[in-house]
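Final report, closing paragraph on structural work. Over the funding period we assembled a curated collection of sequence-structure pairs, and we close with a single example.
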Amino acid sequence: MTEYEVQAYVALVDGGQMAASDISSKSGVPFSRVYDVLGRLEEKGFIQVQRGRPTQYVAKAPTEIVRLVRLALQEKIEKSGKAVIEELQPRFERETQATTRDVWLLHGRAAILAKALEMVTVAKDEVLFSLPSLDTSTLKDTFEIEDLTDIIEAILNLKVPKVCVLTSEVPTDLKEMIPKEIEIRSRDKVFGAGLVVDRRETLIMLAGGNDDSEFLGVFSSHNVFANMASLYFDSLWADSVPI
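Its predicted structure, as stored:
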């Protein structure tokens, strides 16, 4: 918002419904500019306009303004992030194929979960994901709930042809939110967590205890490693029950 827009909106918050001339006098916005300022506030959805003689203006609730701003920023970030990924990720992958090692060790929950989210974000054809439970409350001693929830939500919102999730527990309220395109199966026990993307990248997540330093992730971009992990996942998948 510009300074004039802020002044006009605050005047409406303080004074309630007003005509343009009253807004100008109470806010300090020059009358020659007030209609232009109010027009921009209306376009942004920050005020309501009641046409008449004279036209009346009413401020929307600050809670609604914050919600609108948050949505606008989120949309901008998502659009910018998509543009960055589409432009730079292929170039990054070409470079890493030529210069990096095939296997990496990741230390700590934050690094492991960040890598998992990165892998899911760039998935194109297939995602295979195994986790002891999709109930974050049962995993609160193992993972940071906020980060883990981000990964689960990212997987459930994927738009790739094949998404398979293997787990031992799915909360009832979460079952209703799972898109029909996503296949979920359960088995009595699922040890550890693993992720295979496009049969090209693999991440195995290991927890040695509650201390952050005891969390270890094994990431590989080698196709042999991915094929082995995929075959193991497929064998567990075949021996599991559809949800």
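The CA atoms of residues 168 and 186 lie 5 Å apart. Residues 140-146 have pLDDT under 50 and may be disordered. We thank the funder for supporting this effort.
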